[in-house]
Design a protein that fits this description.
The structure holds three protein chains of three kinds. Chain A has helices spanning about 5-35, 40-45, 55-65, 70-100, 105-115, 120-135, 140-165, 170-175, 180-210, 215-220, 225-235, 245-275. By secondary structure, chain A is an all-alpha fold. The model of chain A has no long low-confidence stretch (mean pLDDT about 85). Classes of the chains: A mainly alpha, B alpha+beta, C mainly alpha. The interface of B and C includes residues 73, 74, 75, 86 and 100 of B.
Amino acid sequence: MNEETKFILKKLVFYAFIFTVVAWIVIPIIISTLYGFALPKDYYDPKKILPTSFTIKYVKTLLITLGALDGIKNSIIVALITIAISFALGIPAGYAVAKFIFPGKDTIKLSIVALRMFPIPVMAIPLVILYIRLHLIDTLLGVALAHTAMSLPFVVLITSSIFAGVSKELEEAAMVFGLTRLGSFFKITLPLALPGLAAAAMFTFVMSWNEVFVASILTLAHRTLPAQILSIMAGASGGAAPDYYKFAAAFIMILPAITFIFFARKYLVTMWGITLK
Amino acid sequence: MVEVRLENLKKYFGNGKVKAVDGIDLTIKDGEFLVLLGPSGCGKTTTLRMIAGLESPTGGKIWFGDKDVTYFSPKDRNISMVFQSYAVWPHMTVYDNIAFPLKIKKHPRDEIDKKVKWAAGMLQIGNLLDRYPAQLSGGQRQRVAVARAIVVEPAVLLMDEPLSNLDAKLRVAMRAEIKKLQTKLKVTTIYVTHDQVEAMTMGDRIAVMNKGKLLQVGPPTEVYLKPNSIFVGTFIGAPEMNLLEVSIKEKENGLVLEGTGLEITLPEEFRELLERYINKSVIFGIRPEHMTIEGVSTLEHVKRAREIEGTVDFIEALGTDTIVHARVGEGNLIKIKLPGHIPLEIGSKVKIVVDLDNIHIFDKTTENAVI
Amino acid sequence: MKVKSSYIPYFLILPAFAYLLFFVGYPLVQALYTAFTQNGHFSLATVRKTFTDPYFWDALKYTISLAGVIVPTQVALAIILALGVNRVFKGKDFTIYALTIPLTISDVAAGLIWYSMLSPSGFLNKLLLNIGLINNPIYFFGYQYRHMEFLAIVLAELWRATSIVFVIILAGLQMISHEYLEAAEVFGADYWTRLRKIVIPLLKPSIQSALIIRTLFAMQIFGIVWILAGRDIPILAGEGFYRLTELKEYDVASIYALVIAGLSIILGALYIKFMKAEYLEVRG
């Protein structure tokens, strides 16, 4: 075998590998989406690998009759409150970690990294007792507060890395030319950090949007979308929902997240890189 | 030890759009220290990487002795390399770093030990062998990189701007040390740099590159004294060679360089070379150190001189030297480098003495040297 | 108001830090109190009640064995994927994007998606039936097929959460200077030697954090199991959830919470102890 055929063969194997990898990720998403819109007769027909006739009936039933629309609304509210609180608390902390040198900084940073991995069930289960006392149980604010605790360490780490990326000299230049530290933060650092912060907000949104354990435990009537889907699909009824509802549910759940991520994809890998180091 | 020969070596990127290396012919003699000199982006590093086997050429051949190694992988070439960032592996101790090339080649353990200690001794890092790179200073890491490169006793040693990350003082010290080491080991060495001082002080020969082409190859003094083009002339030497546009005129006392505010009569021996430029424009080049000012300093070794008149415009006092900026005629500014501290008043008229044996005349269109 | 400037960073950090401390500290204290008291007195009754319940031991067993199968596979897969993708080729951006899609998909959705692949009328069964590789559908779900349920969970979890490991490893890989590898190449190391002697050791910190993160999250595995297997395959978080929401046993649920916390702390500490990359620690 000469060098050239070897080279071509290598390339072929490589692209086969890449194709397999992409197919492994993408096919299940496509299949479940197709099934979400398939007629049951197609789905239960053993001869039909892929459905040929489609309906939006089940997505519609799920959204309206089964209340997924309310779930979506609740999820969005929870996510927005989560973003608001975790940014209000997280941006100053992230800025401090990025721009100041002070005793105990490493310890604080490390503990934030450690807190990021605090198990959510541990937090949620005892929280029920407190929430009952404070009348926060079954409220969206209650869920958002818990989600904030989950996302806050990420927000601190991401924002600190974004701020660290804004050169100190730019800010110092602004201060030399007459702005206060606070002024130069709002006029220089924040605008430069804005795209990163927007991506961080999407990241927080997706985290809250996807969280199911806390939401399921802390709410009953006012459920977020995943909690609601979980209770329909696998709740006390024990997975009684027909299969095609499950696929419709999957579609409703993944659509916003995937769309979001498509827009933030440039930042996403970096962001996970930052938060997971 | 081996002779390295490059034959019409080419490397194009982006389907031939970028000609990083555009046909280079060069022979590096056995045991020679050759410096590849040029500005960044001139193709010198790409050339080195092709010799290393890290980059495969678009065309041409690379010979090590009488072996065609053009498409050999690096491991089959018996080469060593010192990288710009040193590339000292952070997860290995100094000892393991230096031993790595030997371990790969499966040398016996006691031989590895002996050689590592020898190489570390050569670079005076014998006491650092069990440290990790993170614990070393930049200069020490550099020594590790060099020790690792010489430990295998390679046929060809390649160095890619190895001193550019060191501070100025350390750079001077390492410069001498690497040169001494190479002289001792007699290994064929190709050294890439953009620093003309490094090139002048270290190389047995210098190869000047620009825009993917090889412009001039020769011993440092030759390249310095007899640059074959405007580029080579100005790239080597600091302050830069003065360049003035003049024309050549035939006068009663022979050929004359005539520019605004200056007239230099040329010796008769230049006539043959300059015949076809009579009544045409050429570029006249003269290095600042090849001139002096009458009455303040002399060029004792100067055999033949001519004088031009100028006005002092500005003075840079460097302590060891003085650089006089003088205005000659309308708008022509030339720099003259004089040894020591020369007190001259700005605005004073001076007579500038030009060393006729060190003048350069370049063709205006080809930019090649005529004299 | 004049604030001494050295206090500024603490003022900026305090709110976030206090918030986190409360949401971590309070539940821990509350869980300990609920688990170990009865009518205001110290009591081990709840502990006894939990530990004598076979479901608890099953949950512990399944949680650990799921993690034991899933996490190492994910790390190995992610290393292969990252090494494959970390080069210049056509479609690189798209491939990386595709590989990161699951990052955004919740465990519940991932469970549902894989149900569409593996259900008796799902894609995989219909595909294999039509090709003729099988005559009857493979059953992945139902109490009598618990092993297959286990497999389904593993598949879905590999699909969903390998992305995180992939991203960590890829980020680590991209931080390795090219010259480290070129140096090894020049000194005679072939691809496998470079991989073994340079790449993997330099990836150690990334592999370590990937392992920690994935293991800790594996201790909390919930949605995907709950969707695909319900209580057929009991897991710690799921049992805690069940005890709390269905039986209103706050005390037992608290024990489950504490067990998850304890496991996380022990595993985290073990990893840090055994996987130290010494060359990073000795910075002088």
